[in-house]
């Protein structure tokens, strides 16, 4: 439904030198009220795309629409967009309340309206008692909440966030992820969020767009992205992944058989494969692998040697040598770990057909 779309990128390209395209041909619709994350490694084009939407960069080609009107010639301050950056960008000489009032006074609001909105925004991020403090008197997490309140105070229809939690420690970061997510659910504002942290993207988003080399590789809800990656780049970039290289032996509808380098045959789900005889990359998540007796019913059954246990509190990663590969990982919850297993043991293991995906070979090693 077109009237559900708030932002539209149409054939957008960006080049800084007239030769290399940082963003290749971006076509993307962002829905009203959704939390969309642009995820990808450094230099993949995600931040450039966000900056073009904010108005700090100009597209080399194509058009960006906000609520049906073109933004191409509209300066940043007229776009009705809130921004939150990693470095907070608060004015150090202004109190918290003055920082929040600034975007409102620039818009020519009355004093009564300003003080009402500032009050509302402060209680939204639970900083009512900090209104007269200066940014320098606040912790990193508090400063980030002020930056968040300032982006929301003029009630924009769209809020852009560029790595906003990058400077915080792990625990505070996880706390802030949930705060931002709940705030989004309460306010119903549209959020476009940029990060290179895949855990953050999976936790917070309605949909995630995975960028690589200036193009979106896949855009989907977090679970679909993790469970059903379209290609090897997405499978490798999102979460942990075991990859086995092989050749397509046969294909029958949604299923195929792949021969590995040492001759083993694997039955897999055919997702993104070429013709019989061509190279294929198999993708299997570590938590989908069954060990010992649990592997008996699996159609794909092999044996592997345990090389190392990596203890992670609630679960254990077991590094194994499987099908000629020395870094094949199996993930097991502590409660399910067989205490008799030891390094050097040769154990049977297996996985089902739906949990191994046959994808394109990874060319850029």
Question: What does the model show?
Answer:
The protein has helices spanning 46-54, 96-106, 111-124, 140-152, 170-187, 198-204, 222-227, 232-237; strands spanning 5-15, 21-31, 35-39, 61-66, 69-70, 81-84, 158-162, 190-195, 207-212, 215-220, 242-252, 255-260, 265-270, 279-284, 290-291, 300-311, 315-322, 325-333, 346-351, 356-359. Helix 2 (96-106) crosses helix 3 (111-124) and helix 2 packs parallel to helix 4. With 365 residues, it is of the alpha+beta class. Strands 6-7-8-3-9-10 form a six-stranded mixed sheet, with helices on both faces. Strands 11-12-13-20-14 form a five-stranded mixed beta barrel. Strands 15-19-16-17-18 form a five-stranded antiparallel sheet, with no helix packed on it. It is globular and about 75 Å long.
Topology:
Elements lengths: L4 E11 L5 E11 L3 E5 L6 H9 L6 E6 L2 E2 L10 E4 L11 H11 L4 H14 L15 H13 L5 E5 L7 H18 L2 E6 L2 H7 L2 E6 L2 E6 L1 H6 L4 H6 L4 E11 L2 E6 L4 E6 L8 E6 L5 E2 L8 E12 L3 E8 L2 E9 L12 E6 L4 E4 L6
Q: Structural class of the secondary elements?
A: alpha+beta
| Total of helices | 8
The quaternary organization reads as single chain
Low-confidence stretches: none
- Main pleated sheet: 6 strands, mixed
Radius of gyration: 25 Å
N to C succession of SSEs: EEEHEEEHHHEHEHEEHHEEEEEEEEEE
Helix content: 10-25%
Average pLDDT, all residues: 92
Query: What coarse outline follows from CA principal-axis ratios?
Result: globular
The amount of beta strand, in percent, is 35-45%
What's the N-to-C terminus distance?
40 Å
The number of E-state strands comes to 20
Strand order of the largest sheet: 6-7-8-3-9-10
């Amino acid at each position: 439904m077109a009237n559900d779309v708030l932002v539209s990128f149409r054939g957008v390209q960006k080049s800084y030198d007239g030769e290399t395209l940082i963003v290749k041909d971006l076509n993307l619709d962002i829905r009203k009220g959704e939390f969309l994350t642009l995820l990808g490694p450094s230099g993949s084009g995600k931040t450039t795309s966000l900056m073009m939407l904010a108005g700090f960069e100009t597209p080399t080609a194509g058009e960006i629409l906000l609520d049906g009107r073109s933004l191409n010639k509209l300066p940043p301050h007229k776009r009705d967009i809130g921004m939150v950056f990693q470095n907070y960008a608060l004015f150090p000489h202004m109190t918290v309340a003055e920082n929040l009032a600034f975007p409102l006074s620039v818009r020519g609001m009355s004093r009564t309206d300003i003080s009402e909105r500032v009050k509302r925004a402060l209680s939204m991020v639970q900083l009512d008692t900090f209104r007269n403090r200066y940014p320098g008197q606040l912790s990193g997490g508090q400063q980030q909440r002020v930056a968040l309140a300032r982006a929301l105070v003029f009630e924009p229809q769209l809020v852009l966030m560029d790595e906003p939690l990058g400077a915080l420690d792990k625990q505070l970061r996880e706390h802030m992820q949930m705060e931002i997510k709940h705030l989004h659910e309460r306010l119903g504002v549209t959020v476009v969020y940029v990060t290179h942290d895949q855990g953050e993207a999976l936790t917070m988003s309605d949909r995630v767009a995975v960028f690589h080399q200036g193009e979106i590789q896949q855009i989907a809800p977090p679970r679909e992205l993790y469970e059903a990656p379209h290609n090897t780049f997405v499978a490798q970039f999102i979460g942990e992944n075991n990859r086995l290289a092989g050749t397509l032996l046969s294909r029958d509808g949604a299923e195929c058989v792949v021969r590995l380098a040492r001759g083993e045959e694997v039955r897999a789900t055919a997702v993104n494969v070429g013709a019989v005889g061509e190279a294929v990359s198999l993708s299997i998540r570590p938590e989908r692998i069954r060990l010992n007796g649990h592997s008996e019913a699996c159609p794909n059954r092999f044996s592997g040697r345990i090389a190392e246990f990596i203890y992670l509190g609630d679960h254990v990663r077991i590094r194994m040598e499987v099908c000629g590969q020395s870094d094949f990982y199996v993930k097991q919850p502590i409660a399910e770990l067989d205490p008799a297993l030891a390094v050097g043991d040769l154990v049977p293991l297996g996985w089902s057909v739906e949990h191994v995906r046959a994808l394109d070979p990874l060319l850029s090693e």
